[in-house]
Amino acid sequence: MATGRANSVEVISERGRIIGLWESGMPKREIALTTGVSQRSVQRWIKRFEEEGSLHIKPRSGRPRVTTPDDDARILDAVEDQPLTSAVHHTRNLELPCHPCTTRRRIHEANIQCYIPATKEKLTQQQWECRLGFALQYLQADHSFWNHVIFTDEKYFSSVEARARHSWRRGNTRYHEENIQERARSGRSYVLFYICLFL
């Protein structure tokens, strides 16, 4: 038996009322006026009750799933390997028998969502160690120390457009290395601004 509002108690009761009025001798047109249901619906439910003896909606087979379990697995493997690639590219590259919208649904079913990727410089191991060392060195510094520190920030403007606009990833993985898009480098000049905050 199908579930949902179509077989809810309220809806079944309304259909039962239609059948009760019809069995009592009321014309179908008057039943429609009394119940507020279209005459076509009244006729349909009376006919179904006569043929099947039931007021419930039967389960329907629905449209068959376009992708196979193997297709679904290949989609997820491709997204894991290339999170900065669009669903359109994955659909074409894997030669899937479906529309890119279906590919997106399969990715969403795996709890993988589409986000704007973080754009950062890819750091070397030495750079990671230097940054970590700096943080640990001043970890216990108090307010009197930081009150005499000048903080600077910088912003790069480049004429090169970022290659990927979206990233397929799970929650809380924005800064995982595979989900970070490296800042584009074309050999062209950058405009560099420095902003200083005096405390």
How many DSSP E strands?
Answer: 6
SSE succession: HHHHHHEEHHEEEE
* Main sheet properties: 2 strands, antiparallel
Number of helices: 8
Mean pLDDT: 80
Helix content: 40-55%
Instruction: Specify the structural class.
Output: alpha+beta
Beta-strand proportion = 5-15%
Radius of gyration: 32 Å
Q: Which regions contain 5 or more consecutive residues with pLDDT less than 50?
A: none
Enumerate the strands of the largest sheet in spatial order, edge to edge or round the barrel: 1-4
What is the distance, rounded to the nearest whole angstrom, between the alpha carbons of the first and last residues? 70 Å
Subcellular location: Nucleus
Domain Insertion element IS150 protein InsJ-like helix-turn-helix: 14-65
InterPro entries: Homeodomain-like_sf (IPR009057), InsJ-like_HTH (IPR055247), RNaseH_sf (IPR036397), Transposase_Tc1-like (IPR002492), WH-like_DNA-bd_sf (IPR036388)
GO molecular function: DNA binding
Describe it for me?
- It is found in: Nucleus.
- This is Transposase.
- Residues 14-65 form the Insertion element IS150 protein InsJ-like helix-turn-helix domain.
- InterPro entries: Homeodomain-like_sf, InsJ-like_HTH, RNaseH_sf, Transposase_Tc1-like, WH-like_DNA-bd_sf.
- Residues 72-139 form the Transposase Tc1-like domain.
- 11% of the residues are buried.
- By secondary structure, this protein is of the alpha+beta class.
- It contains 8 helices and 6 strands.
- It folds into 3 domains: 5-52, Orthogonal Bundle (Arc Repressor Mutant, subunit A); 69-115; 118-197, no CATH class.
- It is elongated.
- A two-stranded antiparallel sheet has the order 1-4.
- It has helices at 9-23, 28-35, 39-52, 69-81, 87-93, 100-109, 125-137, 143-146, and strands at residues 113-115, 118-120, 151-157, 167-169, 180-182, 191-197.
